[in-house]
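User: Predict the structure for this protein chain, please.
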Amino acid sequence: MAKIKVNVVIAGRTYPLSVDNTNEEQGMRTAAKNINDLIAKFEQDYAVADKQDVLAMSALQFASKLEIVYLTNTKNNTEVTNKINDLTNLLDEHL
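Assistant: Here is the predicted structure, written as structure tokens:
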């Protein structure tokens, strides 16, 4: 399958990328838009002159959100697994 060429602009710089399909292309474009929106928000809310600083702040924001989702999912999965094990044990006791 032929790669799709995508140019995304982040913080005023263009990055040429190759993706496998239109879903990846849309994902890249949406991610770039979200990053640029967050950069604009940080620049508006804080007196940040250096793009490196707002890029670092943006990376931290996205990475921390991802980590929070991961930790929440892990906790939820553990709780579900424990409940399934409890139910399995109850069934085993009564059979």
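The mean pLDDT is 92.
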